[in-house]
Amino acid sequence: MGDMKSYEIDELNRHRNDFLNELTDTENPRLRNSTSLVGIIILSTIILISAITGLIMNASGVPTLSTASYYDSTSGEYESYEAQDWDECCKSGYDEMKNQENTHSIKLISPLTSYFILILIFSLLCLTATLAPIPGFAKAPLVVLMSLATTITGIFLMRKYVLSVGIYIQMLSNLAPSDSPPFHLHVMVYFGGILAALCLSLGFIMFKVLKRTLETDQSKRILSGAISFLNISLFVFLISPLLPLTYIAADKNYPSYDEVEDSEGIYQFGTTFLTSGESSPDAFFTTEAQRDILDATYGNYNLVDNLFLAMIWINMSVIMLVALSGIPKAGFLFEGIAQINILSLILIILALVFTIIMYANISNLLSLDGPFSEDRYASISFHMNWVLLLACILAIANWIVILVRSHIPWWVSMGETLQALDSQLTRV
Question: Are 392 and 354 in contact (CB under 8 A)?
Fold first, then answer.
């Protein structure tokens, strides 16, 4: 009887020591995953509460813009501003534009309500999927799906924020010394940006959790390549609109030029190219040469921007396929389908070609057929925005890495598997 009790005590001590060792082992994948899941739970909760807060703020009339209400004709400046909510500053313009094709312009003044509602729904579902007592092979795809849905909504909300900030910075950069801005961004715009950043953070935490749950090195390599493509595409989608592509210097010898009333030049940001490229050239420029210049510059910028948007959707889908690769007996199928990401080279080459064409034609914006007159402006020069070209180069480098580390080994393993299967069938 005493030996039995001694055995039970030894067993209890062993289990206790194993449990303590697991808790203190920082390399233990189960501990790392559980810690990361706690991060997803906390961040999903914060996003959920923030989305509800945004809906309440929006309905309560929290200001979106601060618009000028009084213009002093003597000083030539706006002297007082009035805080306005979305209904006051943007609703009428939105109603006029919502049936038009100006997708970027309308995004600037579109309401935040739909973004808040979608983020609320997806973050709640993400929280529910994370807490639900279901098997790991089923939990992982559900958590990834809901996290991706929240992240994608956050990407488009961040895009709206970036366009708003880009237009605002462009306006401030091009003001004449005697001018003052007709409006300022207010609380709701910045709140939308903060909420979008939280949604993006959730996505990147989810990527880390997913990578730790993957069982094969091949799946991990596919995921790494997709995340790299996604980061490069987001670089174009969210950073390029904030940076100036060109600077068009004013001709100070022009008869009507005034150093006080006129600006020294015009900065054209990525946002300028987006909003200018979506307008019909026929409305302002009648000759074929004029339309060709706009298509080669503003039009190509929009085209490359859309190609990288397609890359975002493709790689989000690849990440979802990688999450499904953990399903028993069927995972290898999704892992194989995810190899379709190698075809992204087509989009990358197209983006590179049209980017080169765009940069090569930028000088034509200041010409006889361009939108800027050679009489009024002295010169046009490139500025700091080389994002599109840099993104294309990085995307090609990442594609080569995927080809060497993931795609070629996958083809080799598939060949070996088919050869082994063929030999087995031959024996039968």
Answer: no
